[in-house]
Every structure is written in structure tokens, then in C-alpha cells.
Design a protein that fits this description.
Layout lengths: L3 E7 L3 E8 L4 E8 L11 E2 L1 H18 L7 E8 L4 E5 L9 E2 L7 H9 L3 H8 L8 H11 L3 H6 L3 E5 H9 L6 E3 H4 L5 E2 L4 E2 L1 H7 L8 E3 L7 E4 L2 E10 H8 L8 E5 L3 E8 L10 E5 L7 E8 L3 H9 L9 H7 L8 E3 L17 E3 L7 H27 L5 E5 L6 H11 L2 E5 L4 H13 L5 H6 L3 E5 L5 H16 L8
Parallel strand pairs: 1-5, 5-14, 9-12, 15-21, 21-22
Antiparallel strand pairs: 1-2, 2-3, 4-7, 6-8, 10-11, 13-14, 15-16, 16-18, 17-18, 19-20, 22-23
Helix pairs in contact: 9-14, 10-12, 11-12, 12-13
């Protein structure tokens, strides 16, 4: 009898459920989008109840449409949008406010104050992060300070807080488990990634009680049981989406790197059990641990990647669908000095400029729609190189291969240009659902149906792209990009 792992992939725009059989083969995917809430400029929220409901719906649809009995599910893995923050009532489970999403910029002033109070070095040393509104800490602080009744409930120990994984687990376990894993904890700007405990100094600075935060444990471990139609299904794997993708790509050796091309680009390099702090604007984060030993990674986050292609489609209306960019880019000559810097939400790694904004450079009378489209697509590759260069310098490891996943990795022009501008191979797997597979693998490891070697052998390559341009051309192109980026710095004056 065939048995299964179910991976729940709770993303920024949709909830998904993925069915994986005991042989590691992806069988089916169900997906349901949920609402994006924009109360003010720069604010982004989700309804936690809608997230929960859509996640239940896709789980149920997955089982019913594939005729899977709940008793045939060995384990559940969960992967999730990471920094998004929820606060809820510990008895009723009702959220006190919408989830504040990782993209939300309302706490930029809180970050500036924290910097002026001299916390930059401390935060980097303890959490591996830079002070930015991207992370959970200031989002949680904002909810405490601005939502009516929260402070009084905190004093009465009536509230709990966490990232989306914790919110899902608490509800799925009928309020029994308030837990998270190392990877999600490491994205809060509240967690000491060396000592593996919540940092009391930062908690005290924000007046956040330790008691509302979840217990933190390895990514491949038991997080509780989901009782579904009388079956207690163990939740045995949890990881933030990008760390899960690193694991799903089988990047188990030091120096291996993956890039997920989604709404943003997220690059992670495995640096093993020895912690490495960046001197080049990268983050140090915990990666998936499966043997009770902490594993570390260097991470570079590009805020706007696939979102730039959506901008072409939805705002400029110069393409009908994202895939149009491939043919258009292939059919026009190489660009001469035309660059799009999609800093719509500031710049992430390695620049970390919250006040940078998007710009187009190098237009002439001959420039038109196609040039803007091609330059926008190429910006994804340039931003990736920015991060890769920083990783090589921080790790002292020369990268000779980049593993890719996410929607935009199916664009062959982009992947070839990525290989050209990096001067290394770019490898695309047959199964690009690396994030969901990673959570599934973590659950399967804990359930003893797979080991690391089995996961490695499960990797199948679709295509490998190799560089095809000369160094001189590569250097000219990239120098132009760097110059364009510098011109966007601090566009919104502080």
C-alpha cells in the first residue's frame, strides 16, 4: 500500500498543499489564493483566518481528489512565508489584528530609532540580521503599541505571537503546540542564532514578553499532531520557505547555493556548522537542521524580482503574461546601456537602502517597449550577481554552480543571461517545487522513510545553462548595472 507525505506551502499570495509519495515522487498540487490587504501606502496585511481556511481547503481537496485516506499520510511538513507576524488570543485562537506581512514598511521609523540607539552591531552579532522593517520584531512591537487592548491582554498573559508556521501549528494541533523551528525564529530579529534562545536584551528593548513567543526546535522534529477526521497525523517538518528550498535542492555541502526566483529573489549558501558573519550586507541565518546540530547559511534577499515582471504586466500593461518576456528578450539585440533598477520597495542585499526607488536609465530616442521589458528581465540576473559576489567574498568560496527554482527559472533567456553574467553553470531541476519538497523531505526524515542519500538521489536535472559571453562583455554589462544602482540610492530623502 502506497503511503504519503503532505507538504503545506503557505506563501505570500496563496496556500498550497503538495502530495508526495513514499518514493519521493511529487503526485499533485492544490492551490488557493487569498486576499492581499493594503490599508495604507507601504502597508501590507493578510487575514490569518483566511490563511488558515485556505490551507485547510487545499489539504482537504488534495486528499479527496487523489482518493488518499488520512491514515495513509505518514507525516506533514510545513513551509511558510517567514517574517510575517501574527498575534492571537491563547484561549480563543482569535487574532488581535491582521498578519503584518514581510513586505510591510510601516515600521521603518522604528528601525531608524533602533539604529540611532546603537543596536546595529548587537543585532548583527546576535541575530545575524541587519535592522530592517522586513523582519518580525518591529512588526510585533507595532501591534503591541497600536492595537487597542493588546497591552492589557499581555499583562494578563492572554496572548501568543509567532510567524505563520506557529499560527498554523497552534490551530492544527487544537491549541496544544505553540512552536516554531530554528529557521523561522532566525528571521524575527529576536533570536540569538549562536545560543539558540530568544534574546532578552532585544525583547526588553521592545517590551516584548518572552512568554508570548513559541518554543524553538530543529526543522526535522515533531511539532505536534494534526487530528483530521479521527487520525492523528504528526507534523514532523517545519522550515521557512527559503531554507526549505535550500534543503529541497539538496544543498547539503558547504558552498552550495540556490536561488529562488519568486516575487523576490532569495539566495542561500550553505556554510555548514560554523557561523559566518557577513561584511558585505548579507544575512547570517539558520538553515534546516535535522540532527540536532545547528546549520548555518548566508542569505541575500532581493525584494523585487518576479514582482518587476508583474509591474510590466499590471501597471505598464506592456506584456500580456510573464512568459512573453522570454520571446521578446530573445528577439531584440543586446542592450546598450539600458538598465531598469526595480527598487520599488527599496534595495535588499547587499545594499540595504530602504530609501532607494525604482528607475530606468539609458533610454534614447530608439528605445521602446521591448528594451524596457528586456532590461527589466535582466535586472533579476544582475541583482542575483550582486548577492553572489558578496557571498563569494564572505565565504571565501568560488561558486561554480547555481541551483535555481521558482516560477521565473522557467524563462530560458533569463537563465542563460544569468549564467552569462555570473560566469558559472546554472542548473534547473525537473521538479522546481523545491520549497514544498524541502518541507516534505524534512518530515520524511523524521518519519524515517528517507535519509540524506535518498534525497540526493531524488534530484533530477532538467537543463544546465553554461556561460556563452566573453569576460570583457560581461564586465561592461555589470559595470553599467552597478553605476545605475548607485544613482538610485537614498532617492526618498530621510
Amino acid at each position: 500500500m502506497m503511503r504519503y507525505i503532505v507538504s503545506l506551502d503557505q506563501g505570500t499570495t496563496s496556500s498550497r498543499a503538495i502530495l508526495i509519495n513514499q518514493n519521493g515522487k511529487l503526485i499533485d498540487i492544490k492551490q488557493k489564493e487569498f486576499s492581499q490587504i493594503f490599508p495604507k501606502q507601504g502597508w501590507v496585511e493578510h487575514d490569518p483566518i483566511e490563511i488558515l481556511k485556505t490551507q485547510y481547503q487545499v489539504f482537504e481537496n488534495l486528499l479527496s481528489e487523489n482518493s488518499v485516506n488520512p491514515s495513509d499520510i505518514i507525516s506533514i511538513g510545513i513551509t511558510n512565508q517567514r517574517e510575517t507576524t501574527v498575534v492571537w488570543d491563547r484561549k480563543t485562537g482569535e487574532p488581535v489584528y491582521n498578519a503584518i506581512v514581510w513586505q510591510d514598511k510601516r515600521t521603518s521609523d522604528l528601525c531608524d530609532k533602533m539604529k540611532s540607539d546603537g543596536f546595529e552591531d548587537y543585532v548583527k552579532e546576535k541575530t545575524g540580521l541587519v535592522i530592517d522593517s522586513y523582519f518580525s520584531a518591529t512588526k510585533l512591537k507595532w501591534i503591541i503599541d497600536n492595537v487597542e487592548g493588546v497591552k492589557s491582554k499581555l499583562k494578563k498573559n492572554q496572548l501568543l505571537a509567532g510567524t505563520i508556521d506557529s499560527w498554523l501549528i497552534y490551530n492544527m494541533t487544537s491549541f496544544k503546540s505553540h512552536v516554531t523551528d530554528f529557521t523561522n525564529a532566525s528571521r524575527t530579529m529576536l533570536f540569538d542564532i549562536v545560543s539558540l534562545v530568544w534574546d532578552e536584551k532585544i525583547l526588553n528593548y521592545f517590551n516584548i514578553p518572552n512568554s508570548i513567543l513559541p518554543k524553538v526546535q530543529p526543522s526535522s522534529s515533531n511539532f505536534g499532531f494534526f487530528n483530521f477526521v479521527g487520525c492523528d497525523i504528526p507534523i514532523n517538518g517545519v522550515a521557512g520557505d527559503q531554507q526549505s528550498a535550500l534543503f529541497g535542492q539538496a544543498c547539503f555541502e558547504e558552498g552550495m547555493v540556490k536561488n529562488t526566483y519568486g516575487t523576490g529573489c532569495f539566495l542561500l549558501m550553505n556554510v555548514g556548522e560554523s557561523i559566518k558573519f557577513s561584511k558585505n550586507g548579507l544575512l547570517t541565518t539558520l538553515s534546516c537542521s535535522y540532527d540536532n546540530k545547528p546549520q548555518y547559511a548566508l542569505e541575500g534577499s532581493v525584494f523585487i524580482a518576479g514582482a518587476a515582471i508583474q509591474w510590466l504586466r499590471d501597471s505598464l500593461k506592456i506584456i500580456d503574461k510573464a512568459s512573453d518576456t522570454e520571446k521578446i528578450s530573445q528577439n531584440i539585440p543586446d542592450l546598450e546601456n539600458v538598465y531598469v533598477v526595480p527598487a520599488f520597495a527599496g534595495l535588499g542585499a547587499p545594499y540595504w537602502d530602504m530609501y532607494s526607488r525604482g528607475a530606468i536609465f539609458g533610454l534614447t530616442r530608439d528605445s521602446g517597449r521591448d528594451e524596457i521589458i528586456k532590461a527589466t528581465l535582466e535586472s533579476l540576473a544582475y541583482q542575483t550577481k550582486d548577492v553572489i559576489d558578496a557571498m563569494e567574498e564572505d565565504s571565501n568560496i568560488k561558486i561554480n554552480s547555481l541551483k535555481v527554482d521558482g516560477g521565473a527559472c522557467m524563462n530560458n533567456y533569463l537563465m542563460q543571461f544569468q549564467s552569462d553574467i555570473l560566469n558559472c553553470e546554472v542548473t534547473r531541476p525537473k521538479i522546481v517545487e523545491s520549497t514544498a519538497m524541502g518541507a516534505g523531505y524534512l518530515a520524511g526524515l523524521k518519519s524515517d522513510i528517507w535519509d540524506i542519500n535518498k534525497i540526493k538521489s531524488n534530484q533530477e536535472i532538467d537543463i544546465t545553462f553554461s556561460p556563452q559571453i566573453k569576460d570583457e562583455r560581461r564586465n561592461i554589462l555589470y559595470d553599467g548595472w552597478r553605476d545605475a544602482v548607485k544613482r538610485t540610492f537614498n532617492w526618498v530623502k530621510k
